[in-house]
């Protein structure tokens, strides 16, 4: 076996790892595949005779590629209301390897990817490499062109944004997560009875009108009416969606909805005594950009 064939074999062994790293950094399966391909091109042109840890070398290479892609993506933002969001894990109809799909789906939630997209490129790279892949800050630092101490600060700042500052105690969040998940499941299919069971009798549904229908906010009160509104025009009423996920919205539990490759809707929930007391869907692009989103812990 010549050196090129040996490198190709080693690269194929590393491909799932590299694709997982790139997906977490970029949030796009297509872009992740582009980054992996570019890392192979760089490997095939490089002198690797002195490389002792090829996996580490490739991780560094793909991290630099992803950083450049994130910076280029930021520079292309011309529409001030554009919100770039990640690709969700989708079915195998597009030819995605099922094993790799499972690998990504198990450890990368849509909510995490949406939150990561709020970070600066250096913050995202530092956080993903260190917190998700245990890369030491001494190795992260040259990738983001910072000192190890500065790279640590970048990751720490990103971690605070990802985790958020919740107004709820951890115990309360542990109790509200099942409620959010149940609401998500019921609203996706418009299950009236299931929605009714989790709503407070005096629940309030508030929504601002946007676009051509802008005017007085919508306000609906009472479990029966709110369940009817959600089951008829809830998440399934949003049309063809790509993914949904549980998040913290300004410190309160909620849901993000992705449609057309963008953050389409955020549903903010107020939960009291195990029941949903307030439902606030937010679709205005300006408000969506201003929301403080974080991952809702399990």
Please tell me about this protein's structure.
The chain is α+β, with helices and mostly antiparallel strands. The chain folds into two domains: 3-118, no CATH class; 170-295, Roll (Nuclear Transport Factor 2, Chain: A). The chain is built from twelve helices and seven strands. Helix 1 packs across helix 3 (54-75) and helix 10 crosses helix 11 (223-233).
Q: What's the gist of this structure?
A:
The protein is of the alpha+beta class and 298 residues long. Helices cover 54% and strands 17% of the residues. The chain has two domains: 3-118, no CATH class; 170-295, Roll (Nuclear Transport Factor 2, Chain: A).
Topology summary:
Blueprint: H1 3-26, H2 29-45, H3 54-75, H4 98-107, H5 110-116, H6 121-133, H7 137-143, H8 148-163, H9 170-189, H10 192-198, E1 199-207, E2 218-221, H11 223-233, E3 243-249, E4 252-259, E5 262-272, E6 275-282, H12 285-290, E7 293-295
Parallel strand pairs: 1-6
Antiparallel strand pairs: 1-2, 3-4, 3-7, 4-5, 5-6
Helix pairs in contact: 1-2, 1-3, 2-3, 3-6, 6-7, 6-8, 7-8, 9-10, 10-11
């Amino acid at each position: 076996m010549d050196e090129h064939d040996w490198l190709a074999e080693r690269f194929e062994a590393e491909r799932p790892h590299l694709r997982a790293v790139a997906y977490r950094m970029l949030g796009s399966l297509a872009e992740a595949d582009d980054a992996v391909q570019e890392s192979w091109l760089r490997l095939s042109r490089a002198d690797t005779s002195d490389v002792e840890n090829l996996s580490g070398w490739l991780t560094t290479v793909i991290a630099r590629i992803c950083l450049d892609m994130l910076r280029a993506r930021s520079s292309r933002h011309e529409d001030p209301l554009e919100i770039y969001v990640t690709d969700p894990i989708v079915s195998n109809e597009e030819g995605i390897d099922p094993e790799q799909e499972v690998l990504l789906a198990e450890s990368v939630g849509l909510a995490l990817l949406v939150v990561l997209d709020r970070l600066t490129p250096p913050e995202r790279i530092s956080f993903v490499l260190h917190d998700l892949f245990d890369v030491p800050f001494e190795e992260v630092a040259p990738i983001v062109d910072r000192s190890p101490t500065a790279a640590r600060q970048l990751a720490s700042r990103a971690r605070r944004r990802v985790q958020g500052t919740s107004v709820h105690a951890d115990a309360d969040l542990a109790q509200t997560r099942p409620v959010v998940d149940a609401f998500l499941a019921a609203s996706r299919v418009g299950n009236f009875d299931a929605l009714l069971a989790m709503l407070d009798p005096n629940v309030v549904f508030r929504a601002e009108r946007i676009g051509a229908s802008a005017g007085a906010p919508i306000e609906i009160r009472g479990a029966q009416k709110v369940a009817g509104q959600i089951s008829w025009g809830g998440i399934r009423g949003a049309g063809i969606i790509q993914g949904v996920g549980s998040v913290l919205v300004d410190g309160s539990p909620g849901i993000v909805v992705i449609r057309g490759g963008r953050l389409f809707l955020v549903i903010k929930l107020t939960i009291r005594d195990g029941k949903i007391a307030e439902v606030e869907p937010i679709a205005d692009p300006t408000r969506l950009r201003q929301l403080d989103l974080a991952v809702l812990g399990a």
